[in-house]
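Before any further analysis, we paired sequence with C-alpha cells, yielding the entry below:
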Amino acid sequence: MVSSLKRTLPNRGTGNLPVLERAPMFQHGQVARATAGIRALVVSFAAVLSAFAQTPAPAPDLAKNPASVPAKLDPALPTIFIAGDSTAARGRGAVQQGWGVPFADYFDLTKVNVANRARGGRSSRTFVSEGLWDQLLVDLKPGDVVLIQFGHNDGGAINDMSRARGSLPGLGEESQEIDNQMTKKHEVVHTFGWYLRKMIADVKAKGASPIVLSLTLRNIWRDGKIERGSGRYGLWSFDIAKAAKIPFIDLTNTMADPFDAMGEEKVKAIYQQDHTHFNAIGADLHAAMVVAGLKGLRPSPVTKFLSAKGEGVPAERFAWLRLGWPAKPALPSVWLVGDSTVRQGRGDGADGGQWGWGEYLGTHLDLDKINVVNRAVGGTGVRSFRDTGYWDFITAHLKPGDVVLIQFGHNDNGPRAPLKGIGEETQEREDEKTKEKSTMHTWGWYLRRYIAEARAKGATPIVCSLIPRNMWRDGKIGRTSGSHADWARDVAKAEGVGFIDLHERIASRYDELGQEKVNPLFADGRVHTSAAGAQLNAAVVAEGLKTLPQNPLAGYIKDKP
C-alpha cells in the first residue's frame, strides 16, 4: 500500500514531499502556481504511520459510549479549537483518520494549544445537545480561535432509535419539538443555521474568534468530477459566515480542484474505508488545506504559531475574500467579473456599509434554475483581475450555457493602467518593484480576451459599462466621454456581444431622483454604493438584460424581484 501510494503521488518539487499531478485546466497564471504549491503538501505515508502509532484510541462514535478525555491545555497559551464530526475527529489510524489529528503538526505547540474536540457521528445539533459544545466553551478564553465544521451528519433522521441526529434543513428560525426516542428526553430541534449561529455567538461572547469551514470531500464522482459538498450544507455554512461577517474557509472547493486533477482512481486509494472517511494521507491533505486557508486570511490568526511544517504551506491567497462558487453545479451560472462596485470587500457590507450591485442581482433571478456567482474583486482593473489570478478560477469552472457579466473601468487609470483605447498598440513597461518587463496592451485588448476566452468555454459574455460616480454638473450626474464607458460599448459592438450601458442607464435614474435623494445611495459619498444604491443598480442591470436583442437569461429573470 505504501509503495502504491507513492507511485500515485510522485516526488517532485520541494524536498521529499509527494506532489499531486497538476490539473490540466490550470496551465497559466498565478493561480496555477499557487494551486501546484498546495498540492505539494502531502506528507509521506510512513511518517504518518509513525505519528499515529503513538496516539490514543479513536473517539467513540455513539452517544452511549463515554467520550475521550480532552488533552490538558496550557492556560498561558492561546488555543485553536476544532468543533466537528468524524472527518476531523481522531479515527482508526492510518486507514481512517480525521484532518484534526495531523493539523496539530503544522503548529509550534510551545506557542499555541491545538484542541481537537471534533467527535465522530455528530451533527451541529448533537454536538450541542450532548454537551460537547458546552465542554468546549468551558475552556474557551479571549484570543482563542474556534474552527466550526458540520454538515455530513445533519441530514440524518430527526427522531429515531439509532442516532436521532438530524437538524432541520436551512437557515431559518423554524423548530420542531420531539420526544427523542434515543435519549428518552424532550427536545426542541432547530435548523442547521440556528445551531451554527449559536456557536458563532457563543464564541464571540467569550472574546474568541469563530471561523466556519465548508465540508470535507466525499469520494463520489459524476462525469469525471468529484462531488463538491454533501447537500447544501457548504452553501449554508458560507451564507452563515457571510451574514455574521466572520471568516470562511472553502475547504470543499479548494480540495476538489486537486482531487479532480488526480482523477477518480487515484483519489479512491485515499478513501479506503468508505466514500466519506479518508485515510491518513487524505487527513493530512485536508489539514494542509485548512492551514493554507488560515494563512490566507487577513489578518491571519495563525502566522505567529506555525511549526516548520506549517511555514512551508503556501497561503491560499484568495481565502480572505470569501468568494462564492456555484451553489448547484449542475445548473447554469452567471459569473460576475469586475471591481468593488460589483463586489466590495468580502461582500458583506463590513466596509462602512459599502455594497456592490452583484450582491443583489440574485434577487432578480430564479435561483432554483440558475446560480449567481459574484467573483468580482475590489481594487482590480481589466488587466490586474487577470494578472492576479482571479480570472483563472472562473475559466477553470466555466461550462457551456454559463453567462459572464464583465464590468471594469474604475481602477484602470494611473501609471499601471493599460494603454488607452481599444486598438492593438503595445508598450514595454518595467515593474517598479520587481524590475521585470512586460508588454502592456490597450484596455479594449484585455476586454476582448475575456470575451474570447468565455466563448471558448461555451459561455456567453455580456459587457457592462462602469457605473457612474456621485459627481454632479449643472444638476445632472457627470458622464465620461471618450473613456472606459465608450470603450466598453465599442468593444461589445465590434465583438457582437450583449452590452448593458450601466453608465448611462444608472446616470439617468440618478438624474430623475436628484442629488438630495442620490447622496444616501453612496456609502462613501462618491464611488461605492450603500445597500440601497446597490439594490437600485442591480435592478438596472436586470432591466438592461431584458432589453438585449438576444438575452441568454430570458428564461431566468423574475417578473418581480
Notes: The first helix runs from residue 2 to 8. Confidence is low (pLDDT under 50) at residues 1-60. The chain is about 30% helix and 10% strand.
